[in-house]
Amino acid sequence: MSDLIHEPPRQTPVIADVDVLVAGGGPAGIAAALSAAREGGRTMLVERYGYLGGMITGSHVVAILGTGDGKGIVAQGFTQELYDRLEPYGGVTERSAAGEYRVDPELFKWQAVEMLAEAGVQIRLHTLACDPILLDGNVGGVITESKSGREAIRAAVVVDASADADLAHRAGVPCDNEPHEVTLRLVIEGVDKEAVDAFRQASPQRYDELMAEAVRRNGGVPVDDKRLLREIDVADADALTHAEILLRRQIFDALTYLRQEMPGYERARIAETSPQLGVRQGRRIHGEYTVLDEDFRENRRFPDSIARLGVYFPDWGPIYKIGGLAYDLPYRCMVPVDVDGLLVVGRCVSSDYVACNTLRLIVPCFATGQAGGIAAAIAAQDGVPPRQVAISKLQESLLEQGVYLG
User: What pLDDT is stored for residue 132 in this prediction?
Assistant: First the structure.
């Protein structure tokens, strides 16, 4: 018996014909769609969930990191606009000296949609961008799946903001992909801290024994601490399924044990787990230029710069491991080799593994998203492939949209 199923040919209805199609509504996708529409492109954004925001709203990664150089604010553009937009609603914290702030994820869900709608972006939620439409080897749109069935969207340029280069990979763009860490955010309620403290003081040895067993059941981490599950390939559905089930199984097992054994935990409960796993790295495309960790450390400048930043986060902190940096991000890292009609934004741009730890932060994702959206609109309007977009024109539009280029 064959291991292949041969699907019958089908006719797929075209539901839209646009200049720019943005696939993915995370931080990079929002910035891309907004900037493309403001550049004059007929723009549509599709998102698989029922809300926008990606890791910000789906996993509560609400810290907008990478705004400065460790000494002062550097990043502008959408990073600053978002702060200005949410601040009147009380949706941001006060900024740090380097410009970092935190956002209210529910307000962000609301205002991200409002900002896009005001710019004229067509928004389609609950819709997964499955496959690129390939025309003579070039991307000419996407195939989607949703409750409405299988549909097609034609586009002069597609911006892959899927976070894992899903469309680029399926279009034949070579990618790197090393396993990384995932987390499951959760909220525990009902712990009587006074009762726990009283038990610890009265029976310190028994308290330590109970906590040690709970830590063992929770994969080596206390139940109220962040749990990292390492070596997960986030481009593999089986690996993601394993991570999702294991993380929930272990925290519930540990908390159930404490409810039964530890005074003060009798009414403890997990009130919430986030709808999305916290993900740090996945696929990274091979682009016209590969950003290297040394590009950041050596403050490299590029003639095709689309942003100047100062954040440096090669591993687990601090955010500004080298203070006072001011390096450029090159446009070419978003342009995939060999395939036209496509740009890639967000953490899956072309970079080495260490550099990606910096590029995956929210502000660098805003930066590549904003540049990718503008470039896509220019390419569509000028009738050229994204790799042939005039850099001077792109940089002029970036400056007009408030981006800092140095």
Answer: 98
**Measuring CA to CA, how many Å separate 141 from each of 47, 167, 305, 316, 368?**
15, 10, 27, 38, 20
- This prediction's pTM: 0.95
Spatial separation of the C-alpha atoms in residues 217 and 35, rounded to whole Å: 47
Closest Cα partner for 128 from 75, 164, 97? 164
Residue 384 CB-density burial (10 A; 0-12 exposed, 13-18 middle, 19+ buried): middle
Residue among 49, 65, 166 nearest 109 (CA): 49
The string of pLDDT tens digits covering residues 218-243 is 999 999 988 899 999 999 999 999 99
In a 10 Å sphere around its CB, with 0-12 CB exposed, 13-18 middle and 19+ buried, how is residue 235 labelled?
A: middle
Tokens of 68: 């400065």
